[in-house]
Design goal:
single chain; alpha+beta; GNAT_dom; Acetyltransferase, GNAT family
């Protein structure tokens, strides 16, 4: 049985993962959410203005924090206090005790290990606090950086859905990875 506690603050060595706040809008615009290519790679629309981001907060992100089974974190770099991305259990299946993670990091912060650091922290939260049985992360077949992050986090490759995503003028596959709680516990014995 899952224990839904909603989005709680998580601290790692270099990051604070917390609920989005309206004060994050400017750094989000600077670092990732207004970047068309970053958002395209993430699979989400880009939001070029503060009004656009505020509407996103009011209709989806911040308004949803009242739901105990809603898990979406702003990723804050400790040294700069900048919102450099986000991570979420965007799909929560309570009946099957399963959660699926999505994430995005701004281009200036990629290649520094932040995605791995935040993903490991959210996986830990999912198993220890929510009590998921299985956690999944998927990525497009062309997204090698995300594949490396997923593998560093200890997930097992399950297979590829061929021609899963239509991307402007072509199809791309979807790689599926997962980790079971029992596997994660073996990997993270203290």
């Amino acid at each position: 049985m899952l224990t839904h506690i909603g989005t709680q603050t998580i601290e790692t060595e270099r990051l604070i993962l917390r609920r989005f706040e309206y004060s994050d809008i400017d750094s989000m615009l600077r670092n990732w959410i207004a970047d068309e290519q970053t958002q395209w790679d993430y699979g989400e629309p880009y939001y070029p203005t503060s009004d656009d981001v505020q509407k996103l907060f009011d209709t989806k992100y911040i308004v949803s924090y009242s739901c105990k089974d809603y898990y979406r974190w702003a990723v804050i770099e400790k040294t700069s206090s900048e919102c450099i991305g986000q991570i979420a259990f965007f799909l929560v299946d309570s009946n099957n005790q399963h959660g699926e993670i999505e994430y995005v990091i701004g281009p200036a912060f990629q290649g520094k290990g932040y995605a791995t650091e935040m993903t490991k922290a959210v996986i830990r939260f999912g198993f220890e606090k929510i009590n998921f049985h299985r956690i999944e992360i998927d990525c497009r077949t062309v997204n090698e950086a995300s594949r490396r992050v997923i593998e560093k986090c200890g997930l097992t490759y399950e297979g590829t859905f061929r021609d899963f995503f239509w991307r402007k003028d072509h199809f791309e596959g979807r790689r599926v990875y997962s980790v079971l709680k029992s596997e994660w516990e073996k990997l993270n014995k203290k």
